[in-house]
């Protein structure tokens, strides 16, 4: 497994852990295809569709901003960023879960 895939796999698992700790049941996209990686449902029936991304930085150290694709915007899929220390946050800082 190359380092990029390894980081992505670890970020995916960290995202599942974080969302679970936030009170969500997390369902994994087993096909590995499609616009979202996770479907999350809490006890209040709030549903969040999530695409997990590993935080990336430019050579100068600034963080690369990730935005949803046009399809993800239509489907209201949220981008969840995972940094190399395991901190999770949504690319849209206005999202509260």
Strand content is 25-35%
Unreliably modeled segments: none
Described by strand count, sense and barrel closure, the largest sheet is: 5 strands, mixed
Radius of gyration: 13 Å
Gap between N and C termini, in Å? 33 Å
Side-by-side strand order of the widest sheet: 1-2-3-4-5
SS elements, strand count: 5
Secondary structure tally, helices: 2
Order of helices and strands: HEEEHEE
**What percentage of residues falls in helices of 4 or more residues?**
10-25%
Shape: globular
Mean pLDDT: 93
Structural class determined from secondary elements: alpha+beta
What does this structure look like?
The chain is 25% helix and 28% strand. The chain is an alpha+beta fold. It has a five-stranded mixed β-sheet. The longest helix is centred in the N-terminal third of the chain and has 19 residues, at 3-21. The N and C termini lie far apart (33 Å). The mean pLDDT is 93.
Feature tags:
97 residues; alpha+beta; 2 helices; globular
Briefly summarize what is shown.
The chain is an alpha+beta fold and 97 residues long. Helix content is 25%, strand content 28%. The model has no long low-confidence stretch (mean pLDDT 93).
Question: Helices and strands in order, then pairings?
Answer:
Elements: H1 3-21, E1 24-28, E2 38-42, E3 47-54, H2 70-74, E4 77-82, E5 88-90
Parallel strand pairs: 3-4
Antiparallel strand pairs: 1-2, 2-3, 4-5
């Amino acid at each position: 497994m190359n380092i990029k895939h390894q980081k992505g796999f670890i970020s995916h698992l960290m995202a599942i852990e974080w969302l679970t700790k936030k009170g969500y049941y997390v369902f994994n996209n087993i096909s590995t295809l499609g616009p979202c990686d996770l479907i999350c449902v809490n006890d209040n029936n709030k549903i969040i569709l999530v695409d997990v991304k590993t935080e990336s930085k430019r050579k100068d150290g600034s963080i690369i901003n990730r935005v949803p694709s046009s399809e993800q915007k239509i489907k209201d899929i949220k981008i969840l960023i995972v940094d190399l220390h395991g901190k999770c946050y949504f690319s849209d800082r206005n999202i509260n879960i």
